[in-house]
Amino acid sequence: MHRKFIALIVATAVIVTGISASKARAADAKDILGGLAAIAIVGAALHHYSKQERRERKQAITRAPRLEYNKPSRRYPRVRPLPDRVARYDLPRRCLRTYDNYSNSRPLLGPNCLSKYYKHAKKLPSQCEVGFWNGKKVKRAYEPACLRQHGYRVVY
User: Fold this and answer.
1) In the prediction, which pLDDT does 87 show?
2) Are 129 and 137 a contacting pair, CB within 8 Å?
3) φ, ψ for residue 54 (rounded to 5)?
4) Are residues 82 and 144 in contact, defined by beta-carbon separation less than 8 angstroms?
5) What is the pLDDT of residues 33-90, one digit of tens each?
6) Whole-angstrom Cα distance, residue 97 to residue 22?
7) For the chain, which has fewer Cβ within 10 Å, the N-terminal or C-terminal residue?
8) Which tens digit of pLDDT belongs to each residue from 110-147?
């Protein structure tokens, strides 16, 4: 924006100088055309320079790879994914389920679902793992409240 403004001021100064000098000398049409040609050459050079600069700036911009769940919409701008060091604390909501023999009102996070949809499932704190008898064998699951105390959260 500033460069365009400065270029406009310089071009205007050159035009005014050329016109006033030609009037002072009572120059002929050749001098006026020569001045206009010089102005056109300077303008073309400035235009070419700004076009090249824009192209270089465009190439310098790097973009994150597009993810499935971040499809661009017309209403909202594209959302960038969280860095891995932050996203690893986000547990998938689809793994929350209630078990009849544990509690009908308190959901747990199933370990099979977590290992399928959460790549850091092996790193979950072992003290948050609960075991309960389902009538045939001991089932294992993770307590969301305990995981929340360790910094994890259930999202998406």
Assistant:
1) 66
2) no
3) -60, -40
4) no
5) 777 788 888 777 777 766 667 776 666 655 555 555 555 556 666 667 767 666 678 8
6) 88
7) N
8) 999 998 988 888 888 999 999 988 888 898 999 999 99
**Strands 138-142 and 129-133: what pairing?**
antiparallel
Q: What is the pLDDT of residue 51?
A: 67
Query: Lowest-confidence range among 27-36, 97-106, 147-156?
Result: 27-36
Question: What predicted TM-score, i.e. pTM, was given to this entire model?
Answer: 0.45
What is the distance of C-alpha 73 from the center of its chain? 14
3-state secondary structure the chain: CHHHHHHHHHHHHHHHHHHHHHHHHCCCHHHHHHHHHHHHHHHHHHHHHHHHHHHHHHHHCCCCCCCCCCCCCCCCCCCCCCCHHHHCCEEEHHHEEEECCCEEEEEEECHHHHHHHCCCHHHCCHHHEEEEECCCCEEEEECHHHHHHCCCEEEC
Phi and psi dihedrals of 147, rounded to 5? -65, -35
Q: Which residue has the tokens 């009572």?
A: 26
